[in-house]
Amino acid sequence: MFDLIRASALQGFPECVRELDGDPDRLLAGAGIALDLIADGEAYIPFHTHAALLAHAADALDCADFGLRLSTHRGIEILGPVALAGRHARTVKEGFEALARYVHAFNPSTRISVSPLRTDEVRYEQSIPADLAAPAQVTELALATGVQAARALIGEHFRPLRVSLPHAQVSPPARYREFFDANVAFGQTHCSFDFHSDDLARALRGSDALVREVTTHLLESPDYASPQTPETALRAIIAQSLATGHCTLVGLAEALHVHPRTLQRHLAAENLSFEHVLADVRRDRARHYLENTTMPLADLSALLGYSEQSSFTRACRAWFGVPPRSVRQAASQVT
């Protein structure tokens, strides 16, 4: 129901679409995603929205290998601090273990494992829960990112021994061979690539113990906890939807690809109210913007999803007992 992925997963999307003579703003707007959200390292979007956007882009641009192309517009850095944890491990094996341990901070819906296949081979496998729709573009993009991670850890010379994809072939065989530089099997029970187990023992050049320690501490802090409880996930979705004009129960149900009544039942089962969570998110965001920015109140109220500044003012009085300007003035006096 509340499966999410960081909005930064779409880094490179505008550039890839423009390269194909498409309009990224239009495609993103059609999915209810603001362009500036992609640069927000704290924002999440529903996984279904991400998957549907990639599938629609592939169709609209007549580009069957869109997922693979998109992967070339960004590197392992797309994973943020998760990439740092991998790059600054002591060995390739520990690097993959770090990626597997912390990938939830980037995409809570994904699981990564590296396990022995036979005496001299191991398998990198990426999985998405079975109840989530994972079209070919999402799956190919995810595995391509995994191959990029292997090249970042092992070296640019890395090439898989073989690649397995769970869906039917959507691009010409030559395209897959060109990208993965390996034989690709389709319709498999797993999404994976295999490589030599000897590579796991390699020491990582440039590994920095201090960076490793700081990054590990960050990724294990509450700020990077996976937003997978219903309430924290709902808060994340509401926060990224406030300024889009779609932050209603119906709008969120559409983003999650469920009927509004179904969403209501799920919330009721968790003793949650959409209206209550919406008010909490707005209050927390309002306090942050008022105390930490000089943003004009008209812009701030629009950012919080209010059509009229007067509505925001009334809400501030209800939350803080004073109008917005007073909240800002009090904060400036403290600092």
Q: Helix and strand layout, with pairings?
A:
Layout: E1 4-6, H1 13-19, H2 24-30, E2 44-46, H3 47-60, H4 66-71, H5 81-87, H6 92-102, E3 111-118, E4 121-127, H7 136-154, E5 162-164, H8 173-180, E6 183-185, E7 192-196, H9 209-219, H10 230-241, H11 249-255, H12 260-269, H13 274-292, H14 297-303, H15 309-320, H16 324-334
Parallel strand pairs: 5-6
Antiparallel strand pairs: 1-2, 3-4, 4-7, 5-7
Features of this protein?
335 residues; 2 domains; Arc Repressor Mutant, subunit A; alpha+beta; globular; 10% strand; two-stranded antiparallel ribbon; 50% helix; five-stranded mixed sheet; 16 helices
Describe the structure.
The protein is an alpha+beta fold and 335 residues long. The protein folds into 2 domains: 64-224, no CATH class; 230-334, Homeodomain-like (Arc Repressor Mutant, subunit A, Orthogonal Bundle), CATH 1.10.10. 50% of the residues lie in helices and 10% in strands. It has 16 helices and 7 strands. It has helices at residues 13-19, 24-30, 47-60, 66-71, 81-87, 92-102, 136-154, 173-180, 209-219, 230-241, 249-255, 260-269, 274-292, 297-303, 309-320, 324-334, and strands spanning 4-6, 44-46, 111-118, 121-127, 162-164, 183-185, 192-196. A 5-stranded mixed beta sheet has the order 3-4-7-5-6. A hairpin with a 2-residue loop joins β3 (111-118) and β4. α5 packs antiparallel against α6 (92-102), α10 crosses α13 and α11 (249-255) crosses α12.
- Report the helical percentage: 40-55%
Major sheet characteristics = 5 strands, mixed
Strand order of the largest sheet: 3-4-7-5-6
The 3D shape can be described as globular
Beta-strand fraction estimate: 5-15%
**Radius of gyration over C-alpha positions, nearest whole angstrom:** 22 Å
| Ends apart, CA distance between termini | 42 Å
Please tally the helical runs, counting DSSP H or I stretches of 4 or more residues. Answer: 16
Class of secondary structure makeup: alpha+beta
Oligomeric status? single chain
Mean pLDDT: 87
Low-confidence stretches: none
Number of domains: 2
How many beta-strand elements?
Answer: 7
Provide the succession of SSEs: EHHEHHHHEEHEHEEHHHHHHHH
